[in-house]
Prior knowledge:
Layout: H1 2-32, H2 60-71, E1 74-79, E2 82-87, H3 90-97, H4 111-115, H5 128-143, H6 145-150, H7 152-172, E3 179-181, H8 182-199, H9 217-229, H10 234-237, H11 249-277, H12 286-293, E4 299-300, E5 303-304, H13 305-336, H14 339-352, H15 368-380, E6 390-391, E7 396-398, E8 401-403, E9 408-411, H16 413-416, H17 463-480, E10 481-484, E11 508-513, H18 517-521
Parallel strand pairs: 2-9
Antiparallel strand pairs: 1-2, 3-11, 4-5, 6-9, 7-8, 10-11
Helix pairs in contact: 7-8, 7-17, 8-13, 9-11, 9-13, 11-13, 13-15, 13-17
Amino acid sequence: MEDFTQFLLVIGLLLLVLICHYKRSRRNNTRKGIKLVAPEPSGALPFLGHLHFLRGQAPLARVLGKIADEYGPVYTLRLGSRQALVVSSWQMVKECFTTNDRNFAARPNMATSRHMVYNKAGFALESGPYWREIRKLVTLELFTSHGLEKFKNVRSSEVTNFINGLSLFSQKNANEASVIDMGKWFENITFNITIKILAGKRFSITGSSEGNNEDLHVHEAIKKGMYLMGVFIVSEFFPYLEWMDIGGYVKAMKQVAKEVDGVIGKWLDEHVERRKEYDGEKEADFMDVMLSTLSKDAEMFGHGRETIIKATTMVLMIGGSESTALTLTWALSLLLNNPHILKAAQKELDMIVGKRKWVEESDIKNLRYLQAILKESLRMYPPGPLAPPHEAIEDCYIGGYHISKGTRLIVNIWKLHRDPQIWSDPHDFRPERFLEEHSDINYQGQNFEYIPFSTGRRVCPAITLAFEVVHLTLARLLQGFDLSTPMGKPVDMSEGLGIALTKVRPLEVIITPRLSPELYQHL
């Protein structure tokens, strides 16, 4: 009885808070004389607005895309106490990120940033001078031509380890079909490349630790962190309810933060001790670079040196490994369901590179069909089907509609990439479109109809690095192995719920070496 009474008190308090907020919101809008004229879907509920629209059995990008079919490529949603603008046409995207680019450069204040990334120290999730300074450092050291060349051996060696592991696996299972969960292998190689660049660490493909890398569970923690970034958190839309932690997501974020911090903190301590032996002169990875760049007593906007380094490492780990693995998984899934395209890609590799040596990064520029395959894969399955949220820092106009300060901007990249006015047969996997009618389109965010890595000031800075990894990994895989599915069945392309287009079913593949045995022996 006592528990029931407490429950009623909580519900009563919740309703009281919601009513107060609703009245205050109505009063402020009347005082300001602001009336949003962008289309708004019918069916909004008191206090909740359109939040119930987002709790369906389909990926969020598809849900929002279906609303766009009825209300057009620009509309507004009321999400609890938040207002959101959803756009999905290249004209609206261009207006948001050219005329209003500065206005939408801010990120909302999100629970993920507060509870999982060192109390808003993760530059990719923040705004203002702090974001600009850390992004400048990261871009200069990792993503310029100098940075890419500096870590070229890391990418090459990890791809070699990847192919060597697949070769050994196929040899052990030479008398039977070698069925492998390729998604797991993609996760391992992209994670290894990322942490080798960031902290000089690596984990074996099989999952056993090497050297001091006993903290393999950080990979699972990072995956959980990715999941938590896409879950429905009530307090994001009703901030005053965060203390209730409905769903337990805040607690889960704090646990992930604790696990990842324990590992990254140990890595940082190792780097500090190692640098004492070399008087701070040896820079082997990005942690070393940050230790050299930031003085011991450095502080930026309330964050100390250690926090800045750990937060930056965490953000790059989350953004650099899982999304790249997902891109490779969807690309191979599409190829397996279109074997004639897979064979055409292998034919191009045989003609341009041959069968007597392994494909290298320097060959990629000549593999135009392989590039088109990746572009088409990213069109259909962008790593972020919804661009990371932006927030208007002042009133503006989009498509002639008045948008209030504080409105969150949601760009539906998935819907944009399937606009039939731009893309013929948008639901078909046809790489040739990037060799023919769309041959002039690139992935740098300069073509507003194709923005797999977003666009504007907040465009992903790691585009070139991601493409180097994805192209070389896929090229080596297609060159080195014949690939098929168990019993010749098509790959199940079911998509997971939430923000990211995760693949629900494992990508099970049968691999068979297609080159001479000597090439695998001399990897």
